[in-house]
Amino acid sequence: MNLFSIGTFIFFTLLVAFLSWKLTKDENLESNTGYFLGGRSLSGVVIAGSLLLTNLSTEQLVGMNGQAFNGGLSVVAWEVTSGLTLVFMALYFLPRYLKSGFTTIPEFLEERYDKGTRNVVAILFLISLGVIFLPVVLYSGGIALNSLLSVKDIFNVSEGTALIITIWGIGIIGGIYAVFGGLKAVAVSDTLNGVGLILGGILIPILGFFKMGDGNVIKGIENIFIEFPEKINVIGTSNSPVPFSTIFTGIILINTFYWCTNQSIVQRAFGAKSLKEGQKGVLYAGILKIFVPIILAVPGLIALSLYSSEISHPDMAYPLLVNKLLPKPLIGFFGAVLFGAVLSSFNSALNSASTLFCLNIYKPIFNSNIKDKDLVKVGKIFGVILGLSSILVAPYIANAPDGLFAFMKKFMGFFNVPTLVIVLVGFFSKRIPPIAAKISLFVFMTIYGVTQFVYKINIHFLHLLGILFVLCVAIMIIIGKLFPMKTEYKQTIKNNISFEPWKYANSFSGVTVVFLVYFYVLFSHYGIIGIPKEEIFSKFIYITLIFTAISLVTFKMLLPPKKVDTEEIKELKRETN
C-alpha cells in the first residue's frame, strides 16, 4: 500500500472520530441513560444507520461472501428475512420495551419472571458476546484489513503476526469509542461509517461486473447468470449451505432473536427519543436489509468467477476481491470504511456488554445503592477487561472448520433461540412461573449441545433449533398450567417519552414483506433463473412492475383511516338534523 493510501486511511478514520466527538461532546455521560442509552435522544435515521452498521460488518462481509463463494446465494436468507423480523420488532416488541423504559432485555425478564432468570440470561448474553461474537468480529476484521492494507508488508512481519497486530489495533481503538464515548458516540460513528460502507460496498460488485464483462457492467451481470445459474438461485437445493426449508425453522427464529431481543442490537432502539422515531429507524433498516445481499453475497460469486484458483479458503474471497479490483487511490478510503465497520460491531457489542454487566449483575447483586457516576466507571473498567480478553481469543477463530460465519451461527444457537423462547412466552402469557423459564433454558441448551458436539444426529442444526423451540415452548406452557403464578403479570409503564406510533408503520411493514417475496420470486426459477439471456431483462421488468403495483396497493390499504376534524363532524350532525 502506497503513502497516498495510508494517508487517506488515516484521514477518513480521524475524520469520523472527530465528527463523532463534535456531535456528542456535550452529552451527559455520567448518568445511566446518558452513557448506556444516548440520553434517549436517538432519531430514526441514526437508529437505522446504527442498526445496519452494527450488523453490516466484516464478519458479514467476509463470512457471508465466503459462504456465497462456496455454495451460492441461498445464504442471503439470513439477510433478506431480517426485513420480516424487523417488522416484528417495530410493531410488537418495541412498543412493549419502550413503555417500561427498559435499558436491557434482562430487565424485562426480571419484571416478567424473577431476578434469577435475569441473572442467568445476562450471564448467557455476556458469554455469547465475549467468547463468540467479539472475537469473531476482531478476527474477520483482522483478515480483511490485513489483506487490504498489506499490514505484513508495512511492518515486514509474517501473515500471522500481521493478523495479531491488526486485531490489537481494532480492539484498542474500538474500545476507546465504546468505553469512553457511550452509546451516542457509537451510534453517530455508525451512521457516518455506514454511508461510506454502503458506497464502497456497492462499488465492489460494480467493478467486479465491469471486469467480468470486459468493460461492460451489463454484460458482466449477464455472464454471471450464464456461468452460475444454480448458484444465483436463492432457493437453492437441499445440499446448499442454507436450505430453503430452514427459513421457516431456525433462520426465522435466530433472526427474530437477533433483531428483537439481542442486547447489542435492540439497545439502539431503546435509545429512541419516541416510539415514532424508534419505529422509523427499525423499519428503514428492515427494508434496506432486503437489498444488502448486493454487498454481502454477490461479491462472493464474482470472486468465484474471477479468482477461484487464487483463493485457498472461502473466508479469503472478499478480501482478495477488494484488493484486486479496487483502484489504488481508493484503497485507503475503503480500508477506513471497513475499519469503521469493524469498530461499529466491536464497540457496539462492547457497550452492550458493559450495559448488561452494570445494570443486571453489578448493581442489583453487588451494590444496589451505587451512584450513576460510579456505575459508569464500573462499566468502563468491565469494557476494558472484556475487550482485552476478546483480543486474546480472536486469533483462535482461524481454526473454525466451516468458516467463521457458520461457526458463529452454530455456536450462538446455544444462547439465542432459548432466550427468544422465554421472552416470547413472557410476552404472550401472564401466569407461567419463573421455574418454567429456567427449565426451558436448561433443556434447550443440554439437548442442543449433546446433539451438536457429542452424539451428532443427521439433521441440520437450523431445523434442530426449530424443533427445540417448539419443545421448550410446550414445556413452559405445561408447567404454567400445572403450577401457575398466583399473581398475574402486568407490565409497568415507566418511560416518559411519546408513545404515539408512526402513522406509516403498518404501510411500511406491508411493503417490506412484499419486497421480501419479490426478491425470492425474482431470483428463482419462477423469475429470471435458468431462462435464455435474451429474456432476462424483459422478465425482470415484468416481475418488477407486478410487485411495484402490489406494493402501492398494500401501502394504501394499510394506511390508518383519515381523521375527521371536529368542525366536519359538527357540520355532518347539522345536516343530519
Structural account:
The chain has 577 residues and is mostly helical. It folds into two domains: 3-495, Sodium/glucose cotransporter (Up-down Bundle), CATH 1.20.1730; 500-577, no CATH class. It contains 27 helices and no strands. It has helices at residues 3-24, 32-36, 44-55, 58-71, 77-80, 82-99, 105-112, 115-149, 151-155, 159-212, 217-227, 229-232, 250-260, 263-270, 275-289, 293-296, 298-307, 317-325, 328-366, 372-393, 404-412, 416-428, 434-453, 461-482, 505-522, 533-557, 566-576. Helix 4 crosses helix 17 (298-307) and helix 10 crosses helix 20 (372-393). The longest helix has 54 residues, at 159-212. The radius of gyration is 24 Å and the shape is globular.
What radius of gyration results from the CA coordinates?
A: 24 Å
Q: Helical percent range?
A: over 70%
- Tell me what portion of residues adopts beta-strand conformation: under 5%
Count the helices. How many? 27
**Element-by-element helix/strand order:** HHHHHHHHHHHHHHHHHHHHHHHHHHH
Shape: globular
**Stretches with pLDDT under 50, minimum 5 residues:** 31-39
Mind telling me which CATH architecture of the largest domain this is? Up-down Bundle
By CATH reckoning, the class of the largest domain would read Mainly Alpha
What name goes with the CATH superfamily of the largest domain? Sodium/glucose cotransporter
Number of strands: 0
CATH fold-type name of the largest domain: Sodium/glucose cotransporter
Terminal Cα separation, in Å?
A: 83 Å
- Main beta sheet: none
- Let me know the average pLDDT: 83
The structural domain count equals: 2
Q: SS-based structural class?
A: mainly alpha
